[in-house]
Amino acid sequence: MTTYHITAPERLSATIELPASKSISNRALIIYALSRGHMLPENLSDCDDTEVIIEALRHMPDTIDIKAAGTAMRFMTAFLSVMNGQTHTLTGTDRMKHRPIGVLVDAMRRLGAHIEYAGEEGFPPLRITGKTLLGGHLDIPGNVSSQYISALLMIGPVLRNGLTLHLTDEIISRPYIDLTLHIMHEFGAEAEWTDIDTVSVKPKPYTSRDYLIENDWSAASYWYEMLLLSGDENAEIRLTGLTDGSRQGDSMARYIFSLLGVKTTFEEKGEGVPTTITIRRNRMHVPKLEYDFVNAPDLAQTFVVVCAAMNIPFRFTGLQTLKIKETDRIEALKREMHKLGYLVRSENDSVLYWDGDRCETEADAVIDTYEDHRMALAFAPLACKGGIAIRNPHVVTKSYPHFWDDLRNAGFTIEEQDR
Predict the structure, then answer these.
(1) Count of beta carbons in the 10 Å neighbourhood of residue 188
(2) Dist. CA 143–CA 31, nearest whole Å
(3) Interval 173-197: pLDDT, tens
């Protein structure tokens, strides 16, 4: 298995062409297909997760393999259910076949969808026969995955009676639901929060239109991390294609990083227009970081790593979805941080904290990625603290395919070994 040994440059000054947002791309593609558009959205992500949706929509084979793309599994489950008269099997990797999808399938069945489990009950693969669905009122837990909710909302305009979703329990990742609603609006849908826990979608078909995808704030977060960990006090990084006031949930990274000592400056180009940002250090940071990541759980790995490396104790809550991601991210983080000498602890499968406790560092430690792109992306910036080794680094293609090329262009040295 391939291992990368990564060393940082002494000086860090770079302009990075960030990848397009996976979150926006995947939503825009489903809505584009439902609008029966003739022109794909512009600046689509070239990551694995988006590619599998593009291929599925382009060819619509009997068996659709979405590989490790959880977003694609959830969005395509709802989409295929409204493709009247078509039957498809939706499958993925072994890990995908162990990621639960019963909540979404149950919700779709209550709307009248014809979905069968082709393997273990409650998990992919799924056998889906599309039909015309009436829609109506539906209760669904808000504390499992916002992607279930987004999948349902996006088909709302093509349901005969529209859709009213009542979200029970705590609502997690609300910004991602808002992102879905925003993109739906851009394509002419009428969908609104009608109460604190209820969203209503009218049966008004989408309108086809040109659409430009913003670049990815999740990808930007790893460069913020590198800036903080760099030994270059005058480090400066420019990141392209980002919007002030972005609807992306992970855009909150800029605010959290400001607590750790990063200043973000936007070029002036007008409200809502993607532009280049410049990030620099301002030397001031909080002595301890406490944060609820319920609205942006994908940022948790980044902040676990950067806080420990900066010797900043932390307590992060709202992480209940991490156990059903590409891997059990809570256990993976604890295990890999232990290799590096940090005793990170967890509570109730939803909290990670570090009080400054250290342990013996593992000699010649190599970070395992567990087939999880964000493990590689979050740990790679540790190269700025004296080098890091990462096993199976190619997992980054899931969301940031040219990440390693960007590191090289920024002056990092990457040595490859097979072991």
Answers:
(1) 15
(2) 24
(3) 899 999 999 999 999 999 999 999 9
Which residue type is seen at 273? V
Q: Strand 345-347 relative to strand 262-266: parallel, antiparallel, unpaired?
A: unpaired
Under the banding of pLDDT at 50, 70 and 90, the label for residue 271 is low
User: Any catalytic annotation for residue 298?
Assistant: yes
Q: Active site residue: 49, 216, 298, 406, which one? A: 298
Please, are residues 314 and 304 in contact by the beta-carbon 8 Å criterion?
yes
pTM over 0.85: yes
Q: How far apart are CA 336 and CA 342, in angstroms?
A: 9
Nearest to 259 by CA among 230, 233, 224, 301: 224
Residues near 294 by Cβ (< 8 Å), separated by ≥ 6?
A: 170, 172, 173, 317, 318, 320
Instruction: Please count the CA atoms within 13 angstroms of the CA of 130 that sit on its side-chain side.
Output: 20
